[in-house]
Amino acid sequence: MANCSQQQLHFVISPIPIPRVVNELQHLKNKICVFLVFLAAALPFNTDKAYAQSATEKGLQVAKAARAAVSGFDGLTVELEMTLRNRQGNESRRALRLKTLESPSSGDKSIFVFDSPKDVAGTAFLVHSHKNKPDDQWLYLPALKRVKRIRSSNRSGSFMGSEFSYEDMTTPAVEKFKHTWLRDEACGNLTCAVIESVPIEKGSGYSRQVGWFDTASYRTWKTEYFDRRNKHLKTLTYSDYNRYGGKHWRAAKLSMVNHLTGKSSNLDWSNFDFGVKLSDRDFTQTSLRRIR
Prior knowledge:
Layout lengths: L5 H7 L5 H52 L5 E11 L5 E11 L7 E8 L7 E5 L7 E6 L4 E4 L27 E11 L2 E10 L8 E7 L5 E7 L5 E13 L3 E11 L5 E11 L10 H6 L2
Antiparallel strand pairs: 1-2, 1-13, 2-3, 3-4, 4-5, 5-6, 7-8, 8-9, 9-10, 10-11, 11-12, 12-13
């Protein structure tokens, strides 16, 4: 530095134009702030929207898979034992049988027939399920020798004194609900997809249902029912699954607990017979009167 001329020294120590640099930095800062504000406002909305679409699509996918898992049987007959249990633990039992004709295009048709005890023997319940309109339901009362139509407004009522409602005894159509995937979680040794299903029909006795379906075979393991005030009304659990014919998974026991009354009802299923030849003539109001 000692050998530098005065002019060279003046150049080296000349001050940098700080004001200009500051102005440019401030301008850049303003641009970054504007971008971050826009990003903060835009990202949550877009993310939530994308998540909602994904959850809805996944919920519908699981619901369809669960429905497909119990389809493909054509005709079915099965025997059931219904156990009614009050809050004190006292029990009463009823024997009944069921036959179902599968109809993927329109909706399944089913008949429940009670064989015992004597006071309900001969009572029959007919269901015509539909995909895009309310189901048709009729109850035959042998003591009165007449067929009674179950109105939509009465389908939240108790089915034959049990904790199952008339609405619970029909084949649920995927199209009658808005399905939303909530989460995946462990259920025993399996992983279950938890799906919320909100009924589209105004006549439903439930505000929503939450179901647990294993991601391996899409079997139903539990369903929670919420009443119209969104209170947890009932829980239905499925157990003792067996596979028939190498493809038909069915639970041997269904247990419905009413959390408001403390009562419960079990349905024990046995003697499944798949592929039975049935026709629409077996599921008419006239057939209800003749059934034995």
